[in-house]
Amino acid sequence: MALVLRNTKGSALTYNELDGNFTFITSSFVQNSLTSSMTAGTASYVTTLSDQPVSINGAAFADQDLKLAAGSITLSSGTGTSPANPALAGKILGSTIFIVASYYGASGGSPLNVTIAGNGAITVNELGGTSNETINFIATYY
To answer: Which tens digits make up the pLDDT trace of 50-97?
Structure first.
């Protein structure tokens, strides 16, 4: 069974249609692409989210193939830098890469400033802070 879309159908979905959608997603995408890759090192996994709508600076949405990078950086006196990442080299923050960073396991602290160097290294600075906290980040780029 394929996905049943409310906009295509023209009315609310029934419980059976909703259940069928979840069954379809579970069997065709989540289970084969994501869950397997988390439990078996040789399993296939998603490397690109193809044709996702992206709008930059209020421009019309255009399809882009998106990729993700994630990791953590341990601050030292309020600052920390990841190793260089060739996949992120030359990306422009707010244009071809978007990075979200947050404190790991802490209730928060000073605001964070995130930058990316030309070699793809990500730097996190606590604005006015001097902690040695761990910062998690996820970068979406194309």
So the answer is: 777 777 777 788 777 788 888 889 999 999 999 999 989 999 998 889
Residue 80: closest CA among 25, 27, 132: 132
Measure CA 70 to chain center.
Answer: 7
C-alpha 23: how far from chain center: 24
**Whole-model pTM over 0.90:** no
Instruction: Note the pLDDT of residue 131.
Output: 87
Round to whole Å and give the CA distance between 96 and 119: 14
What is the secondary structure of 20-58 as a DSSP string? HHHHHHIIIIIIIIIIHHHH-TTS-----EEEEEE-STT
How many domains is the chain built from? 2
Range of the domain at 27: 6-39
Are residue 58 and residue 107 in the same domain, yes or no?
yes
In a domain, 65, yes or no: yes
Rounded CA separation 78/91 (Å): 24
CB-CB contact of 122 with 75 (8 Å): no
Give a yes or no: residue 116 inside a domain.
Answer: yes
Q: Is there a single domain that holds both residue 58 and residue 85?
A: yes
